[in-house]
Design a protein that fits this description.
This protein has 421 residues and is an alpha/beta fold. Helix content is 37%, strand content 19%. The protein is built from 15 helices and twelve strands. Strand 1, helix 2 (40-56) and strand 2 (67-74) form a beta-alpha-beta unit. Helix 2 runs antiparallel to helix 3 (90-98) and helix 9 crosses helix 15. It is elongated. One of its GO terms (cellular component) is extracellular region.
Amino acid sequence: MNTVTLLLLLFTVLDKITAQPCIKSVDIVFAIDVSYSIQYSNFQGYLLPFIQNFVSGYDVGPNFLQARVGALTFSDEPHLAFLLDAHLGKPEVLRAIADIPYQGGETYTSKALKFARENMFGPEHGGRADAEQVLIVLTDGRSYNTTSTVQEANLCKQQGIAVFAIGVGNADEGELKAMANFPAEKYMYYVTGFQALASIQSTLLDSTCGTSKQIYNDENKDSLPCDLPCSGRAVDIVFVIDESFSIGGDTFNSVMLPFLQQVVNHLDVGPYQQQMRVGALAFGTFPRMLFRLNAFTDKRRLVSAISKIRYVGGDSNINTALAFAKDQMLGRLVKGVRGGATPVIVLLTDGKSENRQATVRQAEAARQCGIEIFAVGVGEADQDELSCLVSQPIEDHLFCANDFRDFNSISTTLSSKLSNC
């Protein structure tokens, strides 16, 4: 009996006698560094067993509430190991991982990220529209081109892929942090040597599965899990996005839109009644419709639509934007608004309104119509004014950051408040 067979038998036994696996609809792709610095002994002795142990923590299978696993390797070029729909049972996936070859070469991480985004998660490759998408990058060195690597990682995130970065030994922690989703404590891991990979096994599984939100027992296997993204409530959300001159085109494109995408990625957006729908308008001197609540019931298309929003500029007329959101996007007879859904406005701004009295009056009118108002203020935003606009309690509806560098730290908290998990 060879070593691979013994490992498979061991994993099978452990799977039966230890805790129940994570039950979750998730598509997981591993991007595995096989460059020269890894070395064959580390690849076979530590890296592949680490991946196998991780996969053993999931309920792998073809059904909705099960995980699918794919893998690619990379050095000078990325190489497909197997697609998400190639192996739909855990034993088959574990064998496929054991058969992944070591190649050697340089560390072109950017090419691996691009390959994963373009070739691993689509429906033609076994990806599922309703499953969470997770990309786990394992590397022991700095990429050949850090700028290109970070750019490709951001494109993955914009597509709705959660990027986890695991570094060993000489891996660049700064690059790992830039690659991974926010917050780094959840999405970025670093160990000094391959032997230490086992020390992050449980934490990584918890982070990808979300232990506080997951089902872990067979008795509840047929019920829907409350994992991130999570809702359980019908909510119609309209984002009211400041595009005034004080924001500027660069900040609007590089900070505001990615922030909005991060928030949306944590929401349970979908076509069903107990899911969320999202609309958006931008405002400067005048408000302009971006898309209505019923324009996108598929999260991937919604995230893609956000990336295509163009900056216009203008003054900061928040009052007309709130009136437009209330009457034209959340009004009772407006197309796409659902009876029984909680109407919500989320205001994103970096300044004070042109007419405070009119702005407060419009916010009060919206709240009287049953609309819940949240606000995110950055930099020079008037916190006193914003506190007069949002719903009560203020501390649950108003979020402020000193500057745009701190903007992303708000996204998870805001998503949680909107989801009310």
